[in-house]
Amino acid sequence: MTVFRAAGIAVAGALVAACAVGPNYQRPAFDAAPAYKEESGWKPTEPADTLNHEPWWKIFDDETLDALEVKIDVSNQNVKAAAAAVDQARALVSQARSGFFPTIGLNAGRERGSTDGSPTLTTDTAGATASWSLDIWGQTRRTLESDIASAQASAAALALTRLTAQGDLATDYFELRAQDQLQRLLDDTVVAQERSLKITESRYHYGVAAKADVVSAQAQLLSSQAQQVNAQIQRGILEHAIAVLVGEQPAVFSLTPMPMRADVPTVPPGLPSTLLERRPDVAQAERKVAAASAQIGVAVSAYFPSLTLSGSDQYTGTSLSKLFTVPNRIWSVGPSLAGTLFDGGLRRAEVAQARAAYEASIDTYRQIVLAGLQQVEDEIVTLRVLEKQAVIEEAAVKASREAEALTLNQYKAGTVPYSSVITAQTTTLSSEQTALTVLSDRLQASVALIEALGGGWNAAQLH
Question: Is the pLDDT of residue 5 over 70?
Answer without folding.
Answer: no
